[in-house]
Amino acid sequence: MESLIQLDALPPGLLDLPAARLHEMLPGPTLIHLPGRRTPPLFVSVLLHGNEDTGWLAARTVLKKLAGSELPRALSLFIGNVAAARAGLRRLDGQPDYNRVWPGGESAHPAEEATMRQVVDVMRARGVFASLDIHNNTGLNPHYACVNRLEPNFLHLATLFSRIVVHFVRPLGVQSAAFAELGPAVTVECGKPGASGSVEHAADFIEDCLHLAAFPAHAVAPQDIDLFHTVATVKVPDATSFGFATPEADIDFVRELDRYNFRELGHGELFGWVRQGSGAQLQVSDEAGADIGARVFDYRDGRIVLRKRLMPAMLTRDERVIRQDCLCYLMERLPYPS
After folding, report:
1. Dist. CA 101–CA 182, nearest whole Å
2. Is there a smaller number of Cβ atoms within 10 Å at the N or the C end of the chain?
3. Residue 55: its H or E element
4. What single DSSP character describes residue 220?
5. Do 317 and 257 contact (CB within 8 A), yes or no?
6. What is the signed CA dihedral for 136, 137, 143, 145, rounded to 10 degrees?
7. Helix, strand, coil % (nearest 5) of the chain?
8. With contact defined as beta carbons under 8 Å apart, do 312 and 330 qualify?
9. CA pair distance 188, 202, nearest whole angstrom
């Protein structure tokens, strides 16, 4: 991995490049500091996953719109995995996930960890008004925001993007958790890359945050937020074959499984089938990393069904992403903090 590049201006022509061509100007992860009327700066992170280009397209949209005038607030823009973006992949084989190597993580990738630690250290010295990490999903999901803390400023920031807010503590090593030490931080999920309205929504969010002078002193009103908490991560074991409407696989998932996203599913909801004699089961871990599979799924009669009421998020049918990350997260509604 290349060491961190820092710039104090946009290279000429950068805003004309799609994500797949950023490598032509940026040889590696790059942090660009732009001045504005207010400080401290807004921090925006894009392309931590190379195939999720909505963040870059949104940042490009905002900066083109505001070109020639002073930004309402200083902006520090971090452009992450340009090598994976060149290939149109979440990450390259042999690379770690760029959203698992921030301070507080468990990975063992010293070069990437050092780069992300440098980003945090630089921004700690500059100060951070708020941090936005912009992502896409590979499955069918609404636009929603994620926070690592249930503090008022974090929730105000999240609800500027969506009334759907997810609180999570795992996975570790994510950008939003590292920046939560510096100020309000959020991860926003903008649907599938290329989906209608995604870039516009993310661009509006960035611009709204640039114009924000301060966060409201009052709490977010309960009627303005739908709050959920991630209680489990579901993975397919490496040695287990799987597919969608693929009866010969060890695990054969329901064909349209990603349509379950953000639906509150009841006891007995079918996820798929286990091939007879394979003994295959899903790996399910709670937020402390403990195995809770027996409490979540039932495998009787060769069927995989839920044992309790839960809501999936980030279910995807992209087999490469499932192998590199997970099948989904499972959530429960969270009472609004009083």
Report:
1. 17
2. C
3. helix 54-65
4. P
5. yes
6. -80
7. 30, 25, 45
8. yes
9. 8
User: What is the C-alpha R_g of the chain?
Assistant: 20
> d(Cα 185, Cα 200) in Å, to the nearest integer?
21
Amino acid 297: pLDDT: 98
| Cβ-proximal residues to 113 (8 Å cutoff; 6+ apart), any chain | 101, 102, 103, 105, 107
Tell me the per-residue pLDDT of 261-276, one tens digit each, with 9 for 90 and over.
Answer: 999 999 999 999 999 9
Beta-carbon contacts of residue 274 (< 8 Å; ≥ 6 apart): 250, 251, 252, 280, 281, 299, 302, 303, 304
> How is residue 215 written in tokens?
């966060």
Neighbours of 108 (CB within 10 A): 8
Q: Give me 67's structure tokens.
A: 């070109």
Higher pLDDT, 3 or 312: 312
pLDDT in tens, 58-70: 999 999 999 999 9
251: helix, strand or coil: strand
Average pLDDT over the chain, rounded to whole? 95
- What SS3 class is residue 84? helix
User: Across residues 91-118, what is the average pLDDT?
Assistant: 94
Decide: 80 and 100 in contact? Cβ < 8 Å.
Answer: no
Domains (range + CATH), the chain: 5-224 (3.40.630.10), 231-331 (no CATH)
| Residue 1 confidence (pLDDT) above 60 | no
pTM as predicted:
0.91
Q: Which of 155, 198, 171, 150 lies closest to 53, judged by CA?
A: 198
Closest CA to 275 of 303, 254, 244, 235: 303
DSSP reduced 3-state for 198: helix
CA dihedral 304, 307, 310, 312 (to 10 degrees): -10
